[in-house]
Amino acid sequence: MPESSNTAAETRRTPDPNEKLVKIFDTEQESEAMVVKGLLDSAEIDNDITAAAMVQEMFPGIGGTIILVREEDAARAQSLIAEYRQSATDSGADDDTAEIEAIEEPPAQA
Hints:
By secondary structure, the protein is an alpha+beta fold. The protein contains three helices and three strands, in the order αβαββα.
């Protein structure tokens, strides 16, 4: 019996490596790359995510993840990323540190 069920992930196209692809995003954090990939996927922009690992003997620990899109989709993809970053900044989600009230003296004990 032939399988006829395809998931959305299986039917989603990635750009053909023979097409003109441009790098629109790079990061050292894979989780950040996955968020951006999801953003592009939800906007139905075909994209390819790949490791940008450097030669480990020469540059240990240096690498990251890059996202490529078709040249004709690059402007739209960059605009979406910029809008997402702006909304994250406006909402304070970009804050890496929490504010902690400094106490000069320890509280008095009863």
